[in-house]
Amino acid sequence: MSETTAPSTVASTAPSRARAEIDLAALRANVRTLRAKAPGAAFMAVVKADGYGHGALPCARAAVEAGATWVGVATPEEALALRARGALPADVRIMCWLWTPGGPWREAVEAGLDVSVSGLWALREVERAAREAGRPARVQLKADTGLGRNGCQPADWAELVARSLHAEREGLLRITGLWSHLACADEPGHPSVAAQLALFDEMTAHAEQAGVRPEVRHIANSPATLTLPQSHLDLVRPGIAMYGLSPAPELGSAADLGLRPVMTLAASLALVKHAPGGHGVSYGHHYVTPGETTLGLVPLGYADGVPRHASGTGPVLVGGKWRTAAGRIAMDQFVVDLGGDEVEPGAEAVLFGPGDRGEPTAQDWAQAAGTIGYEIVTRIGVRVPRVYVNE
Length: 391
Ligand SMILES: Cc1ncc(COP(=O)(O)O)c(C=O)c1O
Prior knowledge:
The protein has 391 residues and is α/β, with parallel strands linked by helices. It is built from eleven helices and 20 strands.
């Protein structure tokens, strides 16, 4: 076992207040499971937002060991950090898609990143960067096929394609990919899915007729990789499923999908004490002990990413039983009612994990907080050291 910290975590020798154990064998197995679902497609491991809270670099490396040949992130800064550390094999392609005017285009071109372009302002900036860098940029044109977020509208596509081809002929860039993103892939049968796939087909056909020769065309996120073979095209781009979470409970549990959760979040109880009945617990006294009991103090709070919305509902395994966050979850700590059980201070409190030991899962916390599993794992804060196992 080795201990590594998230980028801005202070202490790598942190005592065991709390830890997020990251099982890289589980991540590799999930990548293999997903690759088996899309055997004809290349695999882009999405490690944005510090690998959905799991650590971008260790997860990217593990995914590459399991067959990923691309790594995807949102911001250029995330991509440059992965490239700069030189820790990924040089032939692993790194793509980033969330640009703003004045972004580090030149650094991206020099680092050989694949950059996404959704509009003419971005094309102009990337052309200028390529001129300055003296080498062509790798550009992937993004189509808005219906998500209504980033991407080029169909009405503007012909112009973006034509101007990109012009820049390609001038040697300023190479159009390496055509891509899009689905709005409702986690709702099988949603009419937007077929509509988006059909429009993507039309928009890529237009680009190819105009002369674009993309290395990859891609649109599939985790739910599409798992359930929509017709969306796999040349490359799939899963994020959440790689970390072992189901993209949506309606698609089945992680286990139903053959996935194993990668992160286990645990803490050591900071205090266990006897309290009389009628004792208010935590800010606002939203919980009052129903009778004489024991209270356990969990040294994790919303500053660590434990959602305050799960006050009174968040489940924790302590002493072999599920307990519930009693009263408000505070910034650094919350309390569980141990119901009179004599548990030692320092005993393990498992907030979530794969579930094998009877512990809750991130999905249980998502339900308790009225959110999605993505948010639960991604928000685990930098104060919680990531401890990597099965590297
Ligand atoms: C453009 C893009 N592609 C792929 C993904 C991966 O999605 P998921 O985590 O649902 O697999 C995301 C994540 O939101 C994304 O923004």
